[in-house]
Design a protein that fits this description.
The structure is a homodimer.
Chain A (H helix, E strand, L loop, with lengths): L9 H18 L12 H8 L3 H13 L3 E4 L3 E4 L25 H11 L5 E2 L12 H14 L14 H12 L11 E3 L1 H13 L5 E6 L3 H10 L2 E8 L3 E2 L1 H10 L4 E4 L13 H13 L4 E4 L24 E6 L11 E4 L4 H12 L4 H12 L3 H26 L5 E2 L7 E5 L6 H10 L2 E2 L1 E2 L12 E5 L6 H19 L1
Parallel strand pairs in A: 3-14, 5-6, 5-8, 8-9, 9-10
Antiparallel strand pairs in A: 1-2, 4-11, 6-7, 10-11, 12-13, 13-16, 15-16
Helix pairs in contact in A: 1-3, 2-3, 5-12, 6-12, 7-8, 7-11, 13-15
């Protein structure tokens, strides 16, 4: 981390506190754009800091373009804090199938993600601090001690029946027709997506995917020799059924993959009627839909969003999810409900790694049976909502004017559009050199159209270190914009 | 399990004990073929059973073809117990590449393996009774309690460095050039094989494999659309380098896959000079070798067999193994040393399931660092050797004349050739109906040439239930031979 992130001297601490205080009051709406700010003397008195410190704080906010000094009149609010506009929609254009070739860049981004020395602003995973680690550890100890060595045996290929039952219960609660026998336990949602694609495609086939989409998924297509037909994801509402239908009219695809709930990276949420419509139009064309629902359990509001699988009458929706965003990323436990493709899915699973690790399945089944998952989810949603709001607010204050960001209604990630001319890869490399992990936007599509984007997530946390990391990112982005 | 396996009534118990006593004396060499057996009166006295019980024991041994009654002379030994000849070598024939199509049968065999209600004579995995389960459970509890939530995070794609280091140490001890950075941790050896094949082949390619070979591996080829070029495995010494060279001269292959140490299912062990020769002739042709070494740590004798990887100077040997046959099958932890293909292997791993489950990696790294693995292996080898010897002995006594079996020098599995006309699939189905799990021979090749074979393993155990299971199998095999 750069020197700028070290707040060791008392004057810097005081200055920083003053700036944050003013930012907070700007964000609260107390001072709308155009309003006059308190005088330097008033700030000095209220915060018990020197006039010099108050002046430095105002100058810093002026530098960021948030406020302006008017001669002999004082300081005025120039633009609203916290009011980042949404990223712009990519222009509609023909999207012929394209061979995916993103591996080099994705490998660089992934290796940064695995680097524990970096400030974690790039990982869309809950931090251990917001997960029930001690509880899971106690349960694991108990099931291994009391299991008579059951953990040493392979579970059935489809997984431990106790866990399949728990997953089926939770899907039934969503209105999906799901028996325990319909569930295949996987090593995370990535393996669920992998199984779905192995079952549905052959090399040379094309698959319809949203753009932007999860980069590991693009890497999977690339290693499998499957081409992508990209359908743009609208900020806020995701893939439009009409646009999808148009693409399907023009191109033959073996499957369609969507993340309707809080798509990674843009956080978009497909309206319920759009989900139903997509299922209908795909079923009509006999095209299987692979639904990635890993963020579905993490809405900010009270209602859990629905799924495409709910509307599936043909067994053509393959629903994929995991516990990686809610309980234990490192435990690698997910599932697929492969619909009519169960026999083929079992063949792929058994010839990939036989079955998922028994100890983690046993402990999760026990945790879920204990009935404390819902309460934990409720807390996690609040934690995510607060950290995303803080991240957005900090962005609006620290990033150069012209920055845009998604305003997600769930999940924990932000999709950030840099001002015109901004370069996400350049920022990624500079951030890494400064000890900060982020993900550059153009790994999320097969083309360079998201070159001026980055994805940020703070994994449900918000603290001084993360705030300083975002400040530093803002400085780097501003310097790049000037240079 | 059928009625025949229930030994509840005292007379059956006495009769059974008498039969076993005589079998033991036959196997000890005390009574060679042609020798006269003790009189019924002598048996009755020695074992304190009635003359009727002694008669019943002799009649049963006669029924099995082990002894014969000669009028007015008593009972004589007809054939030696424990002297099963080796299975015969399949005839050499041209082996054009063949599309693999074994899934239906393999699925049936696999579902039987996952059925805990069956007597486990089909699973080549150590039983929990012979594994350090309580110790592993204590270590797992410790690492999760003391790990500050580290288990909840993804490990790097290549695995936990502590575990990669332990694996590298153990491979260096074999004379392999292996740094921790050369190791990629996988979800079991099956995933290691899967990664190797994803890296090395495209659909339509051919791969040279031994016949017989591990059926999950055939299933992998089938799901990937890769064809098999079969090279016969000789009883005892496995694939012959000269025969392999001949096959490679006739067919273009993208890779070769071998299990040189105690091949599954035939238990063959390639001589060290054959391993060196195979590496040489493949390197000459620039053909990568995938080496499955899962049984290499389990020799019966004092010396650990070498590997092909030892002889690799080109980075063309991809070495695959796991802890599934030595420590914890259900934990699903293995590894691949992919040689020059590390970058491609990491791409496949990350787009299959990102990384292997952290808790099991952490606990195994800690167990290995504790230094008790070698002592455990020593015990496990003895346990395997005893159980395989008992199984062979029991086979020789209980199976119809003409039965043959491998005489492995390591591992825990036996490859059994039924008498001419015997049908392994028929026996598999009848055994399953009688509550006994075995694996039919023809799932181990693409053709029907091992139709009269079965694979047996007792997972390092030997007890009365297993003995009764083998007796029942022998009865079923004999009845089929008669019918």
């Amino acid at each position: 981390m750069s020197q700028a992130l070290l707040l060791s001297d008392p004057e810097s601490l005081r200055f920083h506190a003053a700036e944050q205080h003013i930012l907070g009051r700007l964000a609260s709406g107390e001072f709308p754009p155009g309003a006059r700010l308190p005088s330097l003397r008033a700030v000095s008195r209220t915060l018990a800091v020197s006039i010099a410190t108050a002046t430095r704080a105002y100058l810093e906010l002026e530098r960021k373009g948030l406020i302006e000094a008017r001669p002999r009149s004082g300081y005025f609010v120039r633009r609203a804090v916290g009011a980042l506009p949404e990223p712009r929609l990519a222009p509609a254009r023909p999207a012929p199938p394209i061979a995916v070739n993103r591996s080099g860049l994705i490998a660089a981004a992934l290796s940064a993600l695995g680097d524990a020395s970096l400030l974690p602003l790039g990982v869309v995973c809950p931090s251990p601090e917001v997960l029930p680690g001690p509880q899971l550890a106690r349960i694991m100890a108990g099931v291994l001690r009391g299991g008579a060595g059951m953990d040493l045996n392979y579970t059935p290929i489809a997984g431990l029946m106790d866990l399949r039952r728990q997953v089926a219960f939770s899907r039934q609660a969503l209105g999906e027709a799901a028996a325990p026998e319909d569930v295949l336990v996987t090593s995370g949602a990535m393996e669920a997506l992998y199984i779905a694609l192995r079952v549905l495609t052959r090399p040379g086939d094309s698959v319809a995917i949203p753009t932007p989409t999860y980069y590991c998924f693009l890497q999977l297509l690339e290693t499998m020799g499957v081409r992508a037909v990209e359908v743009r994801s609208h900020p806020g509402r995701g893939v439009d059924p009409g646009e999808l239908a148009g693409v399907l009219d023009r191109h033959e695809v073996a499957a369609c993959v969507l993340c309707p709930n809080f798509n990674n990276p843009d956080g978009s949420l497909m309206p319920e009627e759009a989900k139903a419509e997509v299922v209908r139009l795909l079923a009509e064309r006999r095209i299987p839909l692979v639904e990635d629902d890993v963020y579905g359990d993490l809405p900010f509001g009270p209602g859990r969003p629905g799924t495409c699988k709910q509307h599936d009458r043909e067994g053509l929706v393959l629903s994929c999810s995991s516990f990686s965003k809610t309980l234990a990323p490192g435990w690698r436990v997910g599932w697929i409900l492969p619909g009519r493709f169960m026999a083929e899915a079992l063949r792929v699973k058994s010839s990939t790694n036989v079955s998922t690790a028994a100890p983690v399945q046993m402990a999760l089944a026990e945790y879920l049976a204990g009935g404390r998952f819902e309460r934990h989810l409720k807390t996690l949603r609040q934690v995510n909502q607060r950290s995303v709001a803080s991240l957005r607010h900090c962005l609006s204050a620290e990033f150069p004017p012209g920055t845009r960001a998604s305003d997600p209604q769930g999940g924990s990630h932000l999709w950030v559009e840099l001002p015109p001319g901004g370069d996400g890869v350049d920022l990624f490399l500079k951030a890494r050199a400064a000890g900060i992990g982020i993900v550059p936007g153009n790994v999320f599509s097969t083309r360079d159209e998201f070159r001026n984007f980055i994805r940020l997530s703070s994994g449900g946390l918000w603290n001084e270190k993360l705030r300083e990391g975002v400040r530093e990112l803002g400085r780097l982005a501003a310097a790049a914009a000037l240079g």
